[in-house]
Design a protein that fits this description.
Blueprint (H helix, E strand, L loop, with lengths): L1 H37 L19 E12 L1 H6 L4 E12 L11 E24 L7 E24 L4 E26 L14 E26 L4 E12 L2 E11 L6 E8 L3 E11 L1
Antiparallel strand pairs: 1-2, 1-10, 2-3, 3-4, 4-5, 5-6, 6-7, 7-10, 8-9
Length: 286
């Protein structure tokens, strides 16, 4: 009887141990599967797919520009050189934060340019008639030669490095405009007294008119370097060669202003309008 009882107890104890080992094995298997699931890469945590919330898909920029006359334009205008400002917007079709950066980025945008080619001015002073001759008038007549451009730009940018070379083609329209500005500044002479009952306030009156305007087509090509300053800001150095059709414009060297009457005289000349335009500016991504 005792051996039977001992054998029975041994079998029960062995079953208990085996069942415990089986349960532990199942539990560990579940934990291993959980860990395997948690370590599986997904679209959110993958380092190769980033959120597009900080997308560098577009930028705006501003630059100082110089317009150097070329070919017939240079000869006819006696070497005109303009200085001014350019504002631009570009959209990057390939290089956003929502996908890995490409070796080549393609951009399309618009560019506005203003160039000042110079001019002449003359000032003349006269007093109001007595007894109001304490009031003096300064009359300034100015004649300026300007150019305004609106262009469509296409850019190809190479190599996503801190210094990126790029090439551009550009086309659009350019307005050559010569205008006359007439300004009268009225003021009271220092230390003078006006007649009793007369009140006076200094005033400035300005009037302007267009003397000569001509709209022409222009297109060109060029390139430059984009230099990263921060993740969102970079320096851009660029040179464009722009071919322009014929335009009529004021010969600024021929402008004459009568010192007494302020009457203006000038000559109008005509030529093609090719220019070499170097620029330096800053752009910011958003």
């Amino acid at each position: 009887m005792k051996p039977l009882i001992s054998t029975t107890l041994l079998i029960v104890l062995l079953n208990f141990c085996l069942s415990g080992f089986s349960q532990n094995t199942k539990t560990n298997s579940i934990k291993l599967n959980d860990n395997s699931t948690n370590n599986t890469p997904n679209a959110t945590s993958s380092p190769n797919i980033r959120s597009g919330s900080g997308s560098n898909s577009a930028f705006v920029g501003a630059a100082l520009i110089v317009g150097v006359s070329q070919n017939d334009f240079n000869k006819t205008s006696n070497g005109d050189v303009g200085v001014g400002l350019a504002l631009n917007f570009m959209y990057n079709f390939m290089g956003t934060d929502a996908a890995p950066k490409k070796a080549v980025n393609v951009m399309l945008g618009v560019n506005f340019e203003y160039l000042y080619f110079g001019g002449k001015s003359n000032s003349n002073n006269y007093d109001d008639p007595a007894p109001y001759n304490a009031i003096t008038n300064k009359v300034t007549t100015s004649v300026n030669s300007n150019a305004y451009s609106l262009l469509l730009n296409s850019r190809v940018e190479f190599f996503q490095l801190p210094v990126k070379p790029f090439i551009e083609i550009s086309g659009g329209g350019r307005l050559f405009n010569g205008n006359e500005t007439y300004t009268i500044d009225r003021s009271q002479k220092s230390g003078t007294i006006l007649p009793s009952g007369i009140t006076f306030k200094p005033t400035t009156k300005t009037d302007s008119k267009s003397l000569q305007a001509d709209f022409v087509g222009t297109c060109g090509y060029g390139g430059g370097l984009a230099i990263d300053m921060t993740k969102k800001v970079r320096l851009e150095l660029k040179v464009m060669y722009m071919i322009g059709t014929k335009a009529s414009y004021i010969d600024k060297d021929s402008v004459k202003i009568d010192p007494i009457t302020g009457d203006v005289s000038y000559n109008v000349i005509k030529s093609t309008t090719d220019m070499l335009i170097p620029s330096a500016g800053v752009s910011a991504f958003f």
